[in-house]
Design a protein that fits this description.
flavin adenine dinucleotide binding, TPP_enz, Putative 2-ketoarginine decarboxylase AruI
Length: 536
């Protein structure tokens, strides 16, 4: 046992879990924690963005580029609410993010007395954005709860967690043993489930592998490719499953290819996916049997109607299948034909966007990190950008969080271990995060931000033009002079005119290892969704 403050105990518990960086903004309720971090400043960095929303965005980006949990820190009330968008995005994308949320003094919680930063029922707000959250009532509980939070992130479905921490607990003098991280058992695929799935495979002649966001990381990346090769089966990646297999693999297909495959497939095995359309229905696979593999029970039930539902870790089950599934001849020439058709359809329908997507891909090394905003280029990237390595593609999932890309990419660049990071955004989305160019400058984060400027919320404007007879409302923008803005922040800036210019500018910015903005002025593009939704 050692005498320390609650803030010291929290800092030491984070260090024991391997945390090297916390993304947070100090405030009076957190003084006990930041003082504890000061005493360990040679071992843990506090990176301070310029908006509380960016704390959780950066923690999420850090996790998705590194595979390690990201940690964010905010004051109570408005701090928690501002951080909520990043927590919602992390929740949607099953990211390992721990939020350290301050509270008002413990004796005042729930009193409604108007304490600084007090909001009603903060705990319930936090609970709605997390897999697990706790508010210790004694400072001595802090280390154990930190370890439990990390255990929760590392087991089952890896969603965000939170600790709410009162200033009185963080300042309290205690005798406590910080202890070691809690052991996490390696997931094992149940033998009876492996047998049942092998039986379905034996009865199938044309199986399809479908992968979602639950198939993630270097181990899963290798296993999916090995199983596809063994079965000679197509691998269809959902938007959240991009990076589960190298897009250059001859078995890899984008999400919309499932509409073609369903005509002749007799079995679809979905790993780590919700397996729902954006309208809350089971993905239509025609007459094919459906086997769902997911660690989350809620993602196996209604409205889905699987022939086989397996609650298990997708990667563990993949490992068992690779070991036991017999090699076979599969789709052969039809798969090669379909890959070529998918590529042709993408380039026919959205050629203007694909020129820029190709330029970004060419400028990035295969393990470079691409952070994809919901902009006109970004929408096409959800199926057109070839992801070639694990932990190299980041997007906001079903949350569709506009404006998240730039701060998320800053966190990704911190976690990427020197790999280049490129974010795409529009002049609409960048308005959420302009202030974070100061963060890039302060910490020398070599993020390349490609900014597409059309003076509009482009997708909203196009829908108003095409669907609502040109009744434009709320979709026009007045922008700053981005060149002057970059100069004010001390950020490199380059104007380019076309896709070739984008590629050249990204390559130069990566080589310079400094934060940079690449701006390209564009017009509103063709709909990026005509290709995807034409058969829905």
């Amino acid at each position: 046992m050692a005498k320390m403050t609650g803030g010291d105990a929290l800092t030491l518990a984070l260090l024991s879990e391997g945390v090297e960086t916390v993304f947070g903004i100090p405030g009076v309720q957190l003084d006990g924690l930041t003082d504890g971090m000061y005493r360990k400043r040679d071992e843990i960095d506090l990176m301070v963005p310029r908006h509380e929303q960016s704390t959780t965005y950066m923690a999420d980006g850090y996790h998705r580029a590194s595979g390690k949990p990201g940690v964010a820190m905010v004051v109570p009330g408005p701090g928690v609410l501002n951080a909520g968008a990043g927590m919602a995005t992390a929740y949607a994308c099953s990211s390992q993010v721990m939020l350290l949320a301050g509270t008002i003094p413990s004796r005042l919680v729930g009193g409604g007395l108007g304490a600084l930063h007090e909001i009603p029922r903060q705990t319930e707000t936090v609970e709605g954005l997390t897999k697990w959250s706790m508010r210790p009532t004694r400072a001595e509980e802090i280390p154990e709860l930190v370890h439990e939070g990390f255990r929760q992130m590392r087991t089952g479905r890896p969603r965000p967690v939170a600790l709410e921490l009162g200033p009185d607990l963080l300042h309290a003098e205690i005798d406590v043993e910080v202890g070691d991280p809690f052991a996490v058992d390696a997931p094992v695929a149940p033998a009876e489930d492996v047998t049942a799935l092998l039986r379905l495979l034996a009865e199938s002649e044309r199986p399809v592998l479908h992968v979602g966001g639950g198939v993630r990381g270097h181990r899963a990346f290798a296993l999916i490719a090995a199983l596809a090769e063994r079965l000679d089966a197509p691998v269809v990646m959902s938007e959240n499953g991009r990076g589960a297999i190298d897009a250059r693999d001859p078995h890899a297909l984008p999400a919309f290819a499932l509409w073609e495959l369903r005509a002749t497939a007799d079995l679809v095995i979905s790993f780590g996916s919700r397996f729902l359309t954006p309208f809350g229905q089971q993905v239509n696979v025609g007459e094919a049997k459906v086997a769902l593999v997911n660690v989350e029970a809620a993602d196996l039930g209604a409205p889905r109607k699987p022939d086989l539902a397996i609650r298990a870790d997708a990667t563990a089950l993949l490992e068992a299948l690779v070991a036991e599934a017999p090699a076979r001849e599969g789709w052969g020439e039809e798969l090669r034909r379909l890959r070529a058709e998918c590529e042709e359809r993408i380039r026919e329908r959205v050629a203007p966007q694909m020129a820029f997507v190709d330029a970004i891909r060419a400028a990035l090394p295969e393990d470079g990190v691409y952070v994809n905003e919901l902009t006109q280029i970004g929408y096409v990237s959800t199926y057109g950008f070839p992801v070639q390595a694990p932990h190299s593609y980041v997007w906001p999932g079903y949350q569709g969080t506009l404006g998240y890309a730039m701060p998320t990419a800053l966190g990704a660049a911190v976690g990427a271990g020197g790999r280049p990071v490129v974010a795409v955004t529009g002049d609409g989305g960048i308005g959420w995060s302009l202030q974070e160019f100061a963060t890039a400058k302060r910490y020398g984060i070599p993020l390349v931000t490609v900014l597409f400027e059309d003076g509009r919320f482009g997708n909203v404007w196009r829908i108003q033009r095409d669907t609502y007879g040109g009744r434009f409302i709320g979709s026009e923008l007045v922008n700053p002079d981005f060149a002057v803005l970059a100069q004010a922040f001390g950020i490199d800036f380059v104007d380019v005119e076309d896709a070739d210019g984008v590629r050249t500018a990204i390559e130069a910015a990566i080589a310079a290892r400094r934060p940079a903005i690449v701006r390209v002025r564009v017009d509103v593009f063709p709909s990026p969704w005509s290709l995807i939704h034409e058969k829905h």
